[in-house]
């Protein structure tokens, strides 16, 4: 599923002709992932289809979590995948799920992805960084979208069945 998220991001970027910038057409959808990351480091990621563990270099920047084969990330680097964090619901520890130390999970409405950090400190730092990014980049509910159910006009009360069947006096 992460690969399909990657394709969706890349399709939306390459399919957009409204922005003539070459940067927008670059891998990463206009995010300069090669410098100034909010967080970067090694994580082991479980594969999407073949559930093997692969060590990948992750870069969190501008609401996207990219991964690469090696840490030598340059402007010419092509990410192996990307997760738009705004689509994520939760990020939390997963040692009990995987029965592995320093494990955490990142869930979207469609799937749950698993990662393993090198230490407890690294795991907590990744969870905190991704969690902050989810909050910063998820779509906020505006006041116009909030429905106040208490102030809506209420239908008149219907007579009870016993009131209807009583003869009039």
Give structural attributes.
alpha+beta; 7-stranded antiparallel beta sheet; 7 strands
How are the secondary structure elements laid out?
Elements: H1 2-14, H2 22-25, E1 39-46, E2 53-61, E3 64-68, E4 81-84, E5 90-93, H3 95-98, E6 103-107, E7 112-116, H4 120-137, H5 161-165
Antiparallel strand pairs: 1-2, 1-7, 2-3, 3-4, 5-6, 6-7
Could you describe the 3D structure shown?
The chain is α+β, with helices and mostly antiparallel strands and 169 residues long. It has a 7-stranded antiparallel sheet. The N terminus is likely disordered.
Tell me the total number of β-strands: 7
Major sheet characteristics: 7 strands, antiparallel
- Cα shape: elongated
DSSP strand content? 15-25%
Helix fraction bin? 25-40%
Runs in which pLDDT lies below 50 for 5 or more consecutive residues are 3-26
Mean pLDDT: 78
Strand order of the largest sheet: 4-3-2-1-7-6-5
Cα gyration radius (Å): 24 Å
Q: Strand pairing plus helix content: what structural class?
A: alpha+beta
Compute the number of helices. Answer: 5
Q: Which H/E pattern describes the elements?
A: HHEEEEEHEEHH
Q: What separation lies between the terminal Cα atoms? A: 71 Å
């Amino acid at each position: 599923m992460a690969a399909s998220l990657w394709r969706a991001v890349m399709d939306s970027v390459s399919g957009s002709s409204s922005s003539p910038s070459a940067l927008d057409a670059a891998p990463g959808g206009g995010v300069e992932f090669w410098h100034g990351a909010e967080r970067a480091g090694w994580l082991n990621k479980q594969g999407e289809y073949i559930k093997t563990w692969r060590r990948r270099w992750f870069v969190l920047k501008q609401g996207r979590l990219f991964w690469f084969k090696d840490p030598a990330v340059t402007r010419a680097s092509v990410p192996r995948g990307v997760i738009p964090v705004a689509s994520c619901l939760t990020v939390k520890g997963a040692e009990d799920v995987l029965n592995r130390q320093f494990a955490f999970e990142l869930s979207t409405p469609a799937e749950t992805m698993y990662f393993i950090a090198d230490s407890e400190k690294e795991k907590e730092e990744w969870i905190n960084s991704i969690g902050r990014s989810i909050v910063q980049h998820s779509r906020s509910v505006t006041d116009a979208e909030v429905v106040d159910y208490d102030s809506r006009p209420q239908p008149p009360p219907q007579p009870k069945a016993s009131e209807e069947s009583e003869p009039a006096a």
